[in-house]
Amino acid sequence: MEIYNGYVEQEDSYYKKLETLEQCQHAIFDHIRRMAEEVLLTIHQLEDKVRLELLHLKLLKAYLAFELK
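and the corresponding structure tokens:
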């Protein structure tokens, strides 16, 4: 009976280790998702900034073209 109880304890230990490993995996995936979201938002903000700068440049260019005529 002692051997059987030892096996039960060992099995429980393996289940606890698996649960811990699964929690680690979920935490890592969540962290990666949040990082990717932050990177994409930053890239989007930079894109908006460049598009706004391009718009201003086009307006200045159009104004100058108008003045030169």
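(Above: one complete record from the training split.) Helices lie at 2-68.
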